[in-house]
Write a structure and sequence with these properties.
By secondary structure, this protein is mainly α. The chain has one domain. It is 79% helix and 3% strand. Strands 1-2 form a two-stranded antiparallel ribbon. β1 and β2 form a beta hairpin. α2 packs antiparallel against α5, α2 packs antiparallel against α6 and α9 runs antiparallel to α10. It starts with a helix and ends with a helix. The relative contact order is 0.12.
Length: 278
């Protein structure tokens, strides 16, 4: 069996096991369990981001940043009135650690900046997904699925449109395989996925059907942000000559590889839900 076929088999097997488990957790477990899952993913995102940017340097710094991301997520979810203080405290802890344990003065500012970025990625940005599930009440599980549908339908649409029509490079310096045609196909995929999800959710669950303009308001900007998130991770990996952010998900690489688009799209969904739809 070729390596490509073998990798595809692993990817499909992982998806076949993980997707039903994920859906069961989202729909059957309480909101705090979803928070725990998202926060665990945030820990991994911060760890992987720091691993990419630190290489093999300063394991303590990577661990502290990852733990602070969990603390940030917890404060933002349970006691948001103390978020500013906790954010300042977390950043000071990072500065103090590197101040007294650095090994290379030329690298320390890079490590501090990478730690802070990783914390914001995993502990703040991703937590908007938990907040969306919590604040949406009984419709919360459907909202998290809607975000996933918009993001991952984009991947599907971009793949098929790129293979069929792709001729013009989107951003070759960052991601040589991506094309403008694929990006447009990704937008189309997100729109189709969002309308399908909106229709199905209204049939099977506690979901108030969204109007056409509301679906488009979620799907189009959400798709664009998702694609930007994908490009952002590609830029970071290319800058550090890394293929995958990790190996924790068999056949799919690391957590950051799998949810890079979700990271950028989730805040948009939360903003629209809280300030436009709610």
């Amino acid at each position: 069996m070729s390596s490509k076929k073998s990798n595809l088999t692993v990817r499909l097997t992982t998806a076949a096991v993980a997707i039903p488990l994920l859906l069961a957790l989202i729909f059957m477990a309480p909101a705090w369990a979803t928070f725990a899952l998202v926060t665990a993913a945030g820990f991994l995102v911060t760890w992987e981001y720091c691993t990419i940017t630190f290489a093999d340097e300063h394991r303590a710094g990577k661990l502290l940043a990852s733990l602070i991301s969990v603390a940030m997520a917890s404060v933002l979810y349970f006691v948001p009135q103390f978020f500013t203080e906790s954010l300042v405290g977390g950043f000071l802890a990072i500065f103090l650690l590197f101040l007294f344990t650095y090994k290379d003065q030329k690298r320390v500012s890079h490590q501090i900046a990478s730690s802070i970025t990783g914390i914001l990625y995993g502990g703040v940005v991703l937590t908007t997904l938990s907040l969306l599930v919590r604040d949406a009440g009984e419709a919360g599980p459907f909202w998290i699925i809607m975000v996933m549908v918009v993001v991952w339908s984009s991947d599907t649409g971009a793949y098929f449109a790129g293979r069929a029509f792709g001729k013009h490079k989107l951003y070759e310096a960052v991601s040589p395989n991506k094309t403008i045609e694929g990006a447009v196909g990704g937008v189309a995929g997100s729109i189709v996925g969002a309308f399908a999800a909106n229709y199905i959710f209204a049939l099977v669950g506690n979901w108030e059907p969204l109007l056409v303009w509301q679906v488009l308001l979620l799907a189009i900007p959400g798709n664009i942000l998702s694609q930007v998130g994908d490009l952002a991770e590609s830029l970071i990996k290319r800058a550090h000559d890394v293929k995958d952010s990790g190996t924790i998900i068999p056949g799919h690489g690391g957590m950051l590889d799998r949810i890079d688009g979700l990271l950028f799209a989730s805040p948009w969904f939360y903003i629209i839900f809280t300030h436009v739809l709610n």
